[in-house]
Amino acid sequence: MIPEELRYTDAHEWVRDLGDGVVRVGITDHAQSQLGDVVFVQLPDVGTTVQAGAPLGEVESTKSVSEIYSPLSGEVTAVNEALADTPELVNAGPYGEGWMLELRLAEGAQPELLDAAGYAALTSD
Prior knowledge:
three-stranded antiparallel β-sheet, 4 helices, 9 strands, 36% strand
């Protein structure tokens, strides 16, 4: 199931608008299922400035290590500290407890993100 209220990147990140120019970011259910069991998540420090499309962290699974790309430009305002001790939250609830970080969008950041239907078309076999 692909939540309708979120927006997506073609690199399998999701974005939830929290209001006031802040968004929450994670990886999609499709991405976590392709990765397998997540064993480690590396995220940037709060205060880090990130650019849309640039790597901002890594997810390590039993199968591989994959980069997480920033869907938007902005400043990291929060990271999901729970992932340090329980990275499997990414597998258990990628759209809930397995969120990765929050960003305050850069001035004039214009997201070019997919809606649920667009992401579904991208991931259909």
